[in-house]
Amino acid sequence: MRRRRLLKSFLRFTIPALATLLFAAMTAFGQSDTGRITGVLTDQNGAVVPGATIVVKNDKTSEERTATSTSDGTYIVASLKPSIYSVTATTQGLSTSAANVQVLVGQEVKLNLVLQTTGVEAKRLRFRRPAPSETCRETL
User: What CATH number does the domain located at 32-115 have?
Assistant: First the structure.
């Protein structure tokens, strides 16, 4: 009888203590020493820009990471060490957009970029008729 009571008492305190330790260990492993940059790429009219290339460069180490915007214009560059980063986004037919951001430990920096359409260069072509002396004449 005494053993049974002692076992119940032991289990009543041991199981919650073990559960608390397990939970604390899981949350400790969930913490990270990195951050990330996320955002949405749009054009000047607010339309999303899929397939754009995003380059994130660490200003201190010159390390570069590249990402591509998804079909809804979003991008994520994860596992970035704390530092200041230069972010550029480019795609065909739109101008390059750039910004500098600081990433801290465990931080998610939201950086939405707007790409402008590039001007279309129009050229006027002029044609001239050849002068009569420049035409070929057949003589018999």
Answer: 2.60.40.10
